[in-house]
Design goal:
Number of helices: 1
Shape: elongated
Oligomer: single chain
Low-confidence stretches: 2-38, 201-246
Number of strands: 16
Structural class: mainly beta
Order of helices and strands: HEEEEEEEEEEEEEEEE
Length: 246
């Protein structure tokens, strides 16, 4: 084998190894940042307006997330799924944060203008899902911060493209812990658990955040209202405004 050919092969192998290493790092980094533990859950979700025949829409959230105690950063995967036998038609997914949980960004989605955020929410994004085929799902990487001195909730409504119907809504459902660990590098939070943070300078565990079963909400200039633990839904209110009612 000539020295030139040997050098070319060695260079190609080195390049391939570097590419593989880079890909592995990217995959591991994404997995670590998502920090989703266990299967997704539709806890706190409820079907609302009737979906088209053969369409069954749901959402999934991780059962467990982890909040960095220094940066307050966390990552959540929000998934919308069509469990029916026919394609969904054009739909949108909304991701809305409440109290201590603030949504900073959702991959491929647009922020809801601050003036249009509902009372009680601090952030929101709208995601144009498009049409989901039967049995298919689409996931979105949610970048968030969580102030562990407060309770925190997230809400995932699935709406028709025109905003007139809400086929499904998960939440506002809490992430939290009854056993905070302020001195640890990170605090694990469980879906469907009210957060009970340690009071500053003390060991008591007061519950913070909205203490009522009714939560004011809204998107695109409307009000979102939570009715009990079952969840909420969006409906159209002229002219072009959306309301979440119990």
């Amino acid at each position: 084998m000539s020295s030139r050919r040997a050098t070319t092969i060695a260079t190609a192998i080195t390049g391939s190894l570097l590419t593989a290493s880079f890909s592995a790092v990217m995959i591991l980094s994404f997995t670590a940042s998502a920090d989703d533990r266990g299967p997704g859950s539709s806890k706190g979700g409820k079907a609302m307006d009737a979906a088209p025949a053969g369409v069954k829409l749901t959402t999934l959230l991780p059962e467990r997330i982890s909040v960095d105690n220094s940066s307050k950063r966390t990552a959540i995967t929000a998934t919308v799924k069509n469990e029916g036998t026919k394609e969904s038609g054009e739909i949108n997914l909304l991701v809305v944060g409440f109290d201590g949980l603030k949504v900073n960004g959702v991959q491929g989605c647009s922020a809801i203008a601050e003036k249009d955020l509902p009372p009680g929410s601090n952030s929101g994004f709208t995601c144009p899902v498009g049409t989901l085929a039967a049995g298919k799902s689409k996931s979105y990487a949610v970048d968030a911060t969580y102030d562990l001195s407060k309770a925190g909730k997230i809400c995932l409504p699935v709406m028709s493209a025109d905003g007139k119907k809400t086929f499904w809504q998960q939440g506002p459902v809490p992430f939290g812990t009854t056993n905070p660990s302020p001195n640890a590098p990170a605090t694990p939070l469980l879906l469907g658990t009210d957060n009970k943070p340690v009071a500053p300078g003390g060991d008591t565990l007061p519950k913070t955040g909205v203490g009522s079963d009714v939560l004011p909400l809204g998107a695109a200039g409307a009000a979102l209202i939570a009715a009990g633990a079952a969840g909420l839904y969006w409906s159209q209110r002229p002219p072009g405004r959306q309301t979440l009612r119990g």
